[in-house]
Amino acid sequence: MWRYGVSILKPYHYVHCKSYPANSKSNLTKTPVIKSSNSWTLMTTITESDVGILCFISHLPGFRGILKQRYSDFIVNEVDTEGNVVHLTSLDAPPEAVQEVETKIPDQLNKCYASEIIKFRSLAGDTDADRLEAFINQITSGSEEDICPIVLSPDSDKSHRTAMHNFFKENLRFLVTDTVDGPDSSSKCIRVRLNSGNNNKGRNSKKRKERGDKPYDSRGSSHWPEHLGKFLRFHLYKENKDTQEALGLIGKLLGIQPRSFGFAGTKDKRSVSTQRVTVFKQHASRLAALNERLIGIKVGDFCYVEDDLLLGQLLGNWFTVILRGIVADSEETIKASAESLGRHGFINYFGLQRFGSGSIPTHRIGATLLRGEWQAAASTILDPREGERDFVSKAREYYKETGDIEGTLRQLPRHLVAERAMLQGLKKCPGNYLQALKAIPRTLRMMYVHSYQSYLWNHAASMRVEKYGSNEVVLGDLVYCKGNDAEKVKVVPTEHEDNNFEDAYDYSQLDEISGTDLPEGKNNLVKAITAVDISTGNYTIEDVVLPMPGSRIIYPVNDIANVYHDMAKKDGISLTESVHNTKEFSITSMTGSYRHVFQKPIDFEWELLSYSDGTIALSETDLDKIAKTKPVNLVKEEKPTNGTEGQDPSDHMEHIESFEDDKKFSTDNVEVEGSREAEPPQIHSLPESNSLGTQKALKLAFTLPASCYATMAVRELLKTSTSVAFHKALNQ
To answer: Where in the numbering of this chain does the TRUD domain appear (predicted)?
Structure first.
């Protein structure tokens, strides 16, 4: 038995599947885990069993291992649609792109604009013409002062504003315009600024102070070189940041809106990841220059393409995972578990991150939306919640007590996108909670409903494993048709099928972390297994799928179908009819999809490692490889996650779970007494030194299709919870 510090830890032994809570509601448990800047806070969070994650495939015992002790212990590389693993290999801009930018001095800035001003005067009047003339003189003078945008006189005539926009496009292409709100609700104003696509030698590089609430239109310049694709594609490398956060920082430095970027899917925050990103009409040299300023983010491998990336345009992700502090009966225990994972795979659950990182589970908000309870849903999103930083809690409390939208917006941090969007919606339409909910970006607001679909799917998958096992197909299982079956089967529409495809949910909005499988095409029809299928052996357990509820899916022709309807009914939701007319929050207006119940890791490899210093990386990142050949500015030193001082509790305490003994569960004549989730072992305090003696780590490498969760593969291996709280407890 391997030793860990000064204590000896026994390996875990787990049951095959926990008892299925057929008629019990999901529970929220309170655990004292978050220490805020002032006091300890009870944080209410969900556990794996709350969201239907109940079973394992193998009967093998688990063992101890710490997931994501360091964020560099979890490396994610996107796999593109051609099957290529995306790596960061170069930080340099292509020579032709550098030359293009460096030699592009706007010729228009070196000419006289008297004739253009005369034309503009006849179109806009003397006041705006004088204002524009002064603005152009400031630009052409070479002044080192900030060049702030100008706002022209209010104009309620849309056709006249269009003529004004066209004037700038045709005559003053080094300037760009957009429309902002005027002094009253019936008027608009045209705002004029220097085109960020021009190389103005830094005169406009300082932070502009008069942008107002609306970001500028980021759609590039009208004089983009014809020989270049409209989109710059690059590889984004990030450490311990989520995709939106990284792109937000890059966009801020470039002075462009987040909507200018396209990507195939978001990646885990607590990881080192590399993925493809596109941006509209930006030169590679501008982005490459940011590498000297960015911390924890690098960009490179630039090329120009004609099309932007859309969510879902990937095959999957390649994972490199380090599990530290391994303790087991023997290496044979680890070997048997690893080989079982490679041979049989894992239950393809939606992981805990699918259901939110805060104290309010996203699937509960989704259920409220499906019931059409708009005000209740809005309150759930906006109301105070446990476990947040003090200044966020104070902002929520302030709004609940005063209803002061402007004052609340000044207090709420910008990363609370849903809350800020809703408040802006309520500001425009007071009391209209549905419109406020629709103000949330579409991908984000649809995550609530998809989370509820995932909640039902997880419970159905657990019932399928508990009732029928994980070895064979059974009567009524659903599978994608093979061979001649595809010609015989008919698509079975639901009773309330909506033939208006434009109103059905657009699956291109999803990413692989959102967890919903993309439709697999009209030729991949689904059928229920018959006695003939079982006798011929045409289908195996790997073919079994379960539906994500929607209007164009069928349910298994066995007891598993009841799980969907019974659990939805318990939440006051019908899967066959809607109680409201808002289609985007109605399951009957979504097409639905299918997801394989079991998933094998692809190209699975594993290796046992020894280490004595917990601060030393055990895997090589893309940036490490580049640094071997060319010095780069590395990110700041990473610290283990055994403390929360100075950190946002939500960073590392995303899924806190209860370890109280509250039930017994048994299977295969083995009774195990314990908690709903795996109880953390008792570990004595560790020495402050980084050297803890020789320890074992397990290195895993594998590919998973888009929408599959690597944490669920790790769960099958260790037979422990994947919650952040559990693995943080192991690291104390």
So the answer is: 345-600
Tell me the fold of 362-442: Hypothetical Protein Yqey; Chain: A; domain1 (1.10.1510)
β-strand pairing of 544-548 with 478-480? antiparallel
Q: pLDDT per residue over 670-686, tens digit each?
A: 322 233 333 333 333 33
Domain ranges of the chain: 29-75+319-348+601-730, 84-103+224-314, 107-194, 362-442, 445-599
pLDDT at 556 over 60: yes
What is this structure's pTM?
0.70
What length does the chain have? 732
Task: Give the whole-angstrom CA distance, residue 136 versus residue 174.
Answer: 10
Contact partners, residue 18, CB within 8 Å, separation at least 6: 49, 54, 55, 665, 676
Backbone angles phi, psi at 541, to 5 degrees: -60, -25
Question: Which residues are bridge partners to 261 per DSSP?
Answer: 279
- To the nearest whole percent, how much of the chain has pLDDT over 70? 71
Question: What does the alpha-carbon distance between residue 608 and residue 696 come to, in Å, rounded to a whole number?
Answer: 7
CA torsion sign for 198, 287, 415, 645 is: negative
Question: In the Cβ-directed half-sphere of 141, how many Cα atoms lie within 13 Å?
Answer: 11
List beta partners, residue 704. 317
Alpha carbons 262 and 276: distance in angstroms, whole number: 9
190 forms beta bridges with 179
Residues 308-339 pLDDT 10s: 999 889 999 999 999 999 999 999 999 999 99
For 225, the enclosing helix (H) or strand (E) is none
Q: Which of 242, 268, 511, 533 is catalytic?
A: 268
Topology given in CATH for the domain delimited by 445-599: Pseudouridine synthase (3.30.2340)
Rounded CA gap, 59 and 482, in Å? 31
Quick: pLDDT tens for 146-188.
678 899 999 888 889 889 999 988 888 888 898 887 777 667 8
Amino acid at 527: K
Question: Is 268 one of the catalytic residues?
Answer: yes
State the Cα–Cα distance between residues 728 and 431, nearest whole angstrom.
Answer: 42
> Which residues, 6+ apart, have CB-to-CB distance to 366 below 8 Å?
448, 449, 450, 451, 452, 453, 455
What's the topology of domain 84-103+224-314?
Alpha-Beta Plaits (3.30.70)
Q: Do domains 362-442 and 445-599 have the same CATH topology?
A: no
